[in-house]
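Practice problem 4.
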């Protein structure tokens, strides 16, 4: 008879532990999902920033090439020498 009481108490304690721990476990799972969603949003923002930086880099390259074209026109018009053109081009590319 005593063994049935001990087994009953053990089963009751097991059910109580499972019941008490279920809520925090579910909260932890939900927090992990929310964190994963926030991280994916952050990654999207990082990608946007990366693309913006690439656009800025393309814009900078475009400006440099425009300046080199202007220098080439000046050289072809005879307003600057070949040496001046090379120095200015080197300065732009560095």
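Answer key:
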């Amino acid at each position: 008879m005593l063994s049935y009481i001990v087994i009953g108490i053990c089963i009751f304690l097991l059910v109580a532990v499972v019941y008490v721990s279920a809520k925090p476990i579910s909260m932890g799972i939900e927090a992990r999902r929310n964190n994963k969603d926030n991280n994916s949003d952050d990654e999207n923002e990082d990608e946007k920033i990366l693309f913006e930086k690439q656009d800025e880099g393309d814009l900078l390259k475009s400006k440099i090439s425009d300046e080199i074209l202007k220098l080439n026109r000046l050289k072809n018009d005879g307003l600057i020498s070949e040496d001046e053109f090379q120095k200015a081009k080197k300065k732009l590319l560095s």
